[in-house]
Amino acid sequence: MHYIDASWELKNFLLDVIPMSVRHTSENMADAIMAVLCEFDLAEKILALTTDNASSMLSCYTFMAARLETEFENQNFAHYRCAAHVLNLAVTQGIKLIDMSVEKVRTLMAYIKSSHPVNEDLKALCKVKEIAYLAPELDVKTRWNSTYYMLEKFTRMETALNLLAADDPIVHQRYPNRNDRVKIKVCKLCVFFFLIYYTNISSTGYNVSSRTN
User: Fold this and answer.
1) CA gap 26, 34 in Å, rounded
2) Do residues 41 and 143 both lie within one domain?
3) Of 8, 18, 135, 137, whose Cβ has the fewest other Cβ atoms within 10 Å?
4) How would residue 53 be classed by pLDDT, with cut points 50, 70 and 90?
5) Is 213 a member of any domain?
């Protein structure tokens, strides 16, 4: 719940965590949210619903809007799509454009992470190159910022990894080629700016949304 208090300060807090013992249909979710709004006497005051882009949530808004207008004469109720979620979808689609290059880094990191001797070799080569050793990290495909951190570790240890690829045939086989590395650096730079923006809007605690109607 986000609102402006009497001192014109933006406030937010959690009204309820709603257990759902029935199917998560649009109508059932709308009924559950409406029950909470009525309990706190907010049905006539609520201005908008912010959700992700799931069709069930869009339909949930439609059910709520109809009830609010009919039962409470609330005709100002609007729907907003979460800006952080929209950004997440956009970056995920962008990363897919160089998915083969990212997959090579993912495969390489998985191999190094799973092999203690290779991991130790990488540590030694980082020491030789006087760069920080960073534990290999695998991304989670549903979290694009984890892909950024995986690529960041790869680029920061690249000089040591080049030496490792020259000595280890398995690493060499999995190692991204020159074209892949150029794509990764460009992608990482673009995602870095998205990450800064995403972190800022996500850490405010405020309602970050884009109007859809």
Assistant:
1) 12
2) no
3) 8
4) confident
5) no
